[in-house]
Specification:
The protein is α/β, with parallel strands linked by helices. The protein has a domain of about 150 residues: 2-keto-3-deoxy-galactonokinase, substrate binding domain (Nucleotidyltransferase, domain 5, 2-Layer Sandwich). The chain is built from ten helices and 14 strands.
């Protein structure tokens, strides 16, 4: 949904819903009325609060709206972690939308009523326990936006700091697997020597494809250093090196899952920021795998509305 006309703000004490996607790096809060986003505010993520408590950070972000409305707040993501507003137990897979909604937790934040969505715990593709918070809200939102995704087997990919691959069977989250692709990319760019040879940030699109090819050849640890030697010996730019490293990590992530024969025939749906999902679409196309991409913000809003519609009272 688009942002509505902010001049349409109503009378004091009218009730409005606030839909919050609170991750590790940022908080996105949307003022919602009958399926239309009237306004948006951003704040710090749970891992970036500094000395502020989660409750103080949330009320500060919502302060401008509290003066004009009575607010009901609905949150997903790290708001329900042990470092968030209140720890919400994970729902165990297999989990359909209704089971997920039943796991919500109602809390008070000062004078605000708040409902926090649970995360989901499931076995990964190697039968090892895995968890997610926030991505399940996007998935259930996608199931309401694209009804055909609620039947049959579908593989969802949610790129990010901790990329998630989620198998959904007839609308139920069945398995999930986390890849630290985004976190590794950030750590290697910030703290390793791989992209520090030059300071030219120019982007060379060929770097990403070169990284994908290196990932197919395997030997990820050995391939990392090619990021540096390409700058030293071949005169590649720092921008090319970053693109190469991105292609190497994303290619290794995708290859690791698709090489599992179980998932070769599953339809793939990407959910996330369009700029990021575009890289995954390119990487999948390089392996001759087709996929569709859905906007992550649109999906999380749809999922939070599903959560809000489950319980309108506090």
């Amino acid at each position: 949904m688009g942002i509505g006309n902010r001049a349409s703000v109503g009378a004091v004490n009218e009730r409005r819903r606030v839909l919050c996607d609170w991750g590790s790096s940022r908080l996105r809060a949307f003022l919602d009325f009958e399926g239309v986003v009237l306004d948006r505010r951003d704040g710090p993520g749970i891992n970036r609060l500094g000395a502020d408590s989660p409750a103080a950070a949330l009320t500060a972000v919502l302060a401008a709206w509290r003066s004009g409305y009575s607010l009901d707040v609905f949150l997903c993501g790290m708001a329900g972690s042990r470092n968030g507003l209140a720890e919400v137990p994970y729902v165990r897979a297999p989990a359909k939308m209704e089971v997920w909604r039943q796991g919500r937790l109602c809390v008070r934040v000062e004078d605000l009523g708040a409902i926090i969505a649970p995360g989901i715990q499931a076995e990964n593709f190697r039968d090892v326990p895995d968890v997610m918070r926030g991505e399940e809200t996007q998935i259930f939102g996608a199931l309401t936006l694209e009804r055909q995704l609620a039947t049959g087997n579908h593989l969802f990919v949610l790129p990010g700091t901790h990329s998630k691959w989620v198998l959904v069977r007839d609308g139920a989250v069945a398995r999930l697997q986390t890849h630290l692709t985004g976190e590794l990319f950030d750590l290697l760019c910030r703290y390793s020597s791989l992209v520090r040879v030059g300071d030219d940030p120019a982007t060379d699109e060929g770097g990403f494809e070169a990284g994908l090819r290196a990932a197919v050849r395997g030997g990820l640890a050995a391939s990392f250093f090619a990021t540096r030697t390409a700058q030293l010996i071949e005169g590649r730019t720092a921008g090319w090196a970053r693109a190469f490293l991105s292609g190497l990590l994303i290619g290794a992530e995708i290859g690791g899952v698709l090489d599992e024969s179980t998932f070769r025939s599953e339809p793939i749906t990407l959910i996330g920021d369009p700029g990021l999902t575009a890289f995954y679409l390119r990487a999948l196309a390089a392996r001759h795998v087709s996929a569709q991409a859905l906007d992550g913000e649109r999906c999380v809003l749809a999922g939070l509305r599903v959560l809000a519609d489950a319980d309108r009272s506090f």
